Amino acid sequence: MALYNKVNKQELKKRLLTEPFKRTTLSFYKYVIIEDPKLLRDDLFRQWQNQQIFGRIYIAREGINAQMSVPEQHWDQFLDQLYSDPRFANVPLKIAVEDDGKSFYKLAVKVRTKIVADGLDDGAFDVTNVGKHLSANEFNEAMELEGTIVVDMRNHYESEIGHFENAITPDADTFREELPMVVEQLKDKKDQKILLYCTGGIRCEKASAYFRHHGFEDVNQLHGGIIEYARQVRNSGIPSKFKGKNFVFDDRLGEKISDEVISKCHQCGADCDTHTNCANEACHLLFIQCASCQEKNQGCCTPACQATLALPDEERKIKRKLAAKDDSLSVYKSRLRPNLKDIIRDQPKA
Questions:
Q1: Cβ atoms within 10 A of the Cβ of 94, count?
Q2: Minimal CA–CA distance to 340: which of 287, 291, 292?
């Protein structure tokens, strides 16, 4: 068996759409020492390929971080194999809130230096000295206490479409950038109650230890992240203090947690919380686009990308290669808030 995918994206997506069975989208992580990440990577790829599992999984010496979709007919086998490994026994699984089974179209298992790119020197502080884990109800109650500070430990494009009431939402491109930014912002509030949250909890594991290392006394984190919070809210009937969508890193790009739409289309300014990637593959910019702009602009972010999309295949391939080498095209490199209104206004169509 080849230990990597060899089928093109278009064919894989076509196969996914014609599958006659259901899938469950889930995520999990575990900080645990893995002596041979490459060996584990190959073993898991063989197992999960045989079970028709799709997803994006990162393995490092410090642990595993997985987002995946599992066919219903292989669910029990998947759990038995996962939990039979002592390193992952009873690891909590976060099941998707909204799931049509089309979250991933292939299996990618990669060895990384870290399972989350945090830029930290883990030897400089105790990464096991984490904050207190709170349930959804405990998190809600803590938010009501006077002086509590709620911090979104996700990137701006995630918090833009959904966040907790009155949360600090840092203007950060990456988790690596956000950590020192928030610590500096709150340096005079080290005696106050700090509530941290993220998508599934993994970023808060490192962030809470980092906060404690920098002298914050009362550090708390949402157990299981927004995904688990939404599940507990729906199952128990407690009020949701999260407004909008939860950004997810798969083809869905978002799960609706509440009915509020708190963000705007980046092109026309209409209420919208639907992320998309520019249809011009030389760009592939992540941005918010309403249905009207999607139709009018052919799924593209700018007139220049529309013009590129109209070119013959070979010319588009050439442009894609050139764009990959051109650092001056910053709008095409950033995942954060390009001023598309001004670009569309000022840029000619051809």
A1: 23
A2: 287
Residue 293 annotated in active site: no
In this structure, is the dihedral angle defined by the CA atoms of residues 295, 104, 31 and 148, taken in order, positive or negative?
A: positive
Confidence (pLDDT) at 20: 94
Active-site annotation holder among 198, 204, 278, 301: 198
CA distances in angstroms from 344 to 37, 254, 267, 306, 349, listed in the order given: 46, 26, 8, 11, 9
Residues contacting 179, CB < 8 A, separation 6+:
118, 119, 120, 206, 207, 210
Q: Are 51 and 3 a contacting pair, CB within 8 Å?
A: no
Which strand ranges, in their side-by-side order, compose the sheet holding 162-164? 162-164, 242-246, 255-256
Angle at the Cα of 204 from the Cα atoms of 199 and 208, rounded to 5 degrees:
160
User: Taking the alpha carbons of 311, 300, 321, 8 in that order, is the dihedral positive or negative?
Assistant: negative
Q: pLDDT below 70 — which residues of the chain? A: 1-2, 323-338, 343-350
| Three-class DSSP category at 205 | helix
